[in-house]
TrEMBL record:
Keywords: Aspartyl protease, Hydrolase, Protease, Signal, Zymogen. This is Peptidase A1 domain-containing protein. GO terms for molecular function: aspartic-type endopeptidase activity. Residues 18-412 form the Peptidase A1 domain. InterPro entries: Aspartic_peptidase_A1, Aspartic_peptidase_AS, Pepsin-like_dom, PEPTIDASE_A1, Peptidase_aspartic_dom_sf. Coiled coil: none annotated.
Length: 436
């Protein structure tokens, strides 16, 4: 009988992105993995996992690579045991496909140990290197530990991608899909989060103290999130997932406060094969990324409300790759209107969600007494909006993959999670070695 599991999550290791503690292998080694609805691969850093000590590890002839907006990696694929949750309240599965990274670009996982993709199977390809391994007299023809050898790591991630993709492609079943297919949990999960940047209490605050702060914590609910009535208030507002390459949805437009609605641009014909729809819901993004034309129209509306906003927003006109805030004393959030987003709903009618000023501005980020604006654009970006944590932070977000083929994303007013869990949350994230 599928059950439902609450898993503590924390945003300090991935600089705003939320990590769950995951236990891997026979030794159940704990690692912090970023929860990402924008990808499907389970990958863990070699030094964090220590696969050489895992007696349940089974090597394969497969290898994987992923290139993100920032960062990327490649490495061999193994199978092993994976468990999530607190003792006595967890979900576990054997023979899970796990990629062990043997080369990473800077900032791939920030200070996390890897990534846990929560999207569909289409984003979890691997490549079968059996032919290459046999040609190199590797017997048995296993990618691990052969690819971990320093001699195999002379290529950059982008160069290795060209090499790897010439071999037969195999589609792997993602971890969450395996959990559902084997009846461990129902085909649903939910996220309850507060922030899209770390809440900084002071400039010299140790990581353990930041991790223990309530605003840097959250919950990941595996299977049947509606059962957890203490976490939300009905009703749910439901958005149809229109394509399962990502969690693809249709953004109809934006409205800033009581201002004029701004229509969201459609994908260009040449963008449709790769991007599918004009918006995705992506928990792995700590920003809301808008197409340039829509972003500029939104900025003009901010300036029309208050000309002083222009100077405050000037540092945030494009994504630089690094957070740099403005003095918090200059920001009065009561002056800033909510931002409404209209989507195609589950029944085909428009559904409205709202970003509050305190989520599209993050106070005490990236440093104490600073503020960071979380809506941006990227040069030459297609007509697709990436709707990340600044949107999700406002709601209890339920990803229901059991309905309508490609699923539905449901949003309800969040309640704070039960106070008695705070001790468990702090304890769960207090035992990592300092260099994690």
């Amino acid at each position: 009988m599928p059950h439902s599991v609450r898993i503590p999550i924390n945003n300090t290791y991935a600089k705003g992105g939320y990590c769950a503690r995951v236990h891997i292998g026979h030794h159940q080694h704990p690692v912090n993995l970023v929860l990402d609805t924008g990808s499907s691969t389970l990958a863990v850093h070699n030094g964090s996992y220590k696969p050489e000590h895992d007696t349940t590890l089974q090597p394969t002839s497969l290898a994987q690579d992923v290139i993100y907006g920032k960062g990327g990696w490649y490495g061999p694929v193994v199978t092993t045991r994976v468990r999530m949750g607190l003792p006595g309240h967890s979900a576990a599965l054997n023979k899970v496909k796990v990629a062990v990274t043997c080369k990473e670009q800077a900032q791939s996982f920030v200070d996390a140990d890897g990534i846990l993709g929560l999207a569909y199977s289409g984003l979890n390809p691997a490549y079968d290197l059996e032919q290459y391994l046999q040609a190199n007299q590797v017997s048995p023809a296993h990618s691990y530990p052969f690819l971990m050898n320093a001699a195999q790591q002379d290529k950059s991630v982008h160069q290795y991608r060209q090499f790897l993709h010439q071999y037969p492609r195999r589609q792997l079943t993602p971890y969450f899909t395996q959990l559902e297919e084997q009846g461990v949990v129902a085909n649903q999960f939910a996220l309850l989060t507060h922030r899209s940047s770390i809440y900084q209490t002071d400039s010299c605050c140790p990581l353990a103290k930041l991790a223990a702060h309530h605003l840097n914590q959250g919950l990941f609910v595996l299977g049947k999130p509606k059962l957890h009535l203490d976490l939300y208030r009905e009703p749910f507002r439901s958005i149809k997932v229109l394509d399962d390459k990502y969690y693809n949805v249709e953004l109809l437009g934006l409205q800033l406060g009581e201002g004029q609605s701004l229509e969201a641009p459609r994908l260009q014909s040449n963008e449709q094969p790769g991007y599918r729809t004009n918006a995705i819901i992506d928990s792995g993004s700590t920003l809301v990324v808008l197409p340039q034309a829509l972003f500029q129209a939104l900025m003009e509306q901010f300036y029309a409300i208050n000309p002083d906003f222009q100077a405050l927003l000037a540092p945030f006109q494009t994504f630089s790759g690094e957070e740099a805030g403005i003095p918090l004393a200059k920001l009065n959030l009561s002056d800033w209107p909510p931002l409404h987003l209209d989507f195609t709903g589950e029944q085909g009618m428009p559904v409205r969600l709202t970003l509050k000023p305190e989520t599209y501005w993050q106070a005490h980020a990236p440093k104490s007494n600073q503020a960071y604006f979380k809506i941006t654009t990227v040069p030459d970006w297609p007509n697709q909006s990436i709707l990340g944590l600044p949107l999700l932070n406002n709601y209890y977000c339920l990803f229901d993959r059991s309905t309508g083929g490609t699923g539905t994303i449901r949003f309800a007013t969040k309640r704070d999670f039960s106070g008695h869990l705070l001790g468990h949350l702090s304890k769960e994230f207090s035992h990592l070695k300092p260099d994690n």
